[in-house]
Amino acid sequence: MTKENRKLIKKINSKLSQRQVNRLITLSIILVIVASTLGISSSIFLHKTTDGYSELSLLMYDSFSETYVADNYPEQIYSDSNVSVYFIVKNYENVVIYYQLQIKIVELTQNVSSLQPILTSSSFILYENNTFEKIISPATNAEKKETESFDGDFLWGPTEIILFINSEVVSGIVSPNFLKIVFELWEYNTKTSEFQYTGIFTFLELDYWVF
């Protein structure tokens, strides 16, 4: 206790009873503890996050106009042929992201959620997980305004995906004539050293015909 504090306490003692002084000291200690606790809690639970997002789009190629369009998606797929679709991932996260696209085939009634990915036990993974992976730089402020742009290091695609169905794919599906193909976007977590689901997805609903 400093000399100044001793003088202050003596001055207070001259006007207050000892019991009142003890209460003031106790209250001061409690306030210091509460303030310290709030400071620690703020640093843990109220940390700032980067303001950004990722974008996943599914497109088709229009050979007539030679452009990619968000239209004319396939509605059927046949056992003796395949279908091509294209995806684009845009990084607006403000940091470099290592992305992975997982493609899963499930029954039409399967629910798709942004909270958790589809379990591998209830789906068929069309391609190996490392088939569609890429590290993408963040978009600049100028690139964020070019929403229709297909150029830049912040963009992955348009990348072709060849969709196919065979006996292995439909072997575990109860109603193989009605399928849902789900495209899930994952990103690499450097802390856990594994990919984690971003909650971003899109899907196609297809009728499957056997010939």
Overall description:
The protein is α+β, with helices and mostly antiparallel strands and 211 residues long. The protein is built from 4 helices and 10 strands; from the N terminus they run H-H-E-E-E-E-E-E-E-H-E-H-E-E. It has helices spanning 3-13, 18-45, 141-145, 167-170; strands spanning 53-62, 67-69, 76-78, 83-92, 97-107, 124-125, 133-136, 155-163, 178-189, 194-209. Strands 3, 5, 6, 7, 9 and 10 form a 6-stranded mixed β-sheet that branches. A 4-stranded antiparallel β-sheet has the order 2-1-4-8, with no helix packed on it.
Short overview:
This protein has 211 residues and is of the alpha+beta class.
List keywords for this structure.
single chain; 211 residues; alpha+beta; 6-stranded mixed sheet; 4-stranded antiparallel sheet; 23% helix
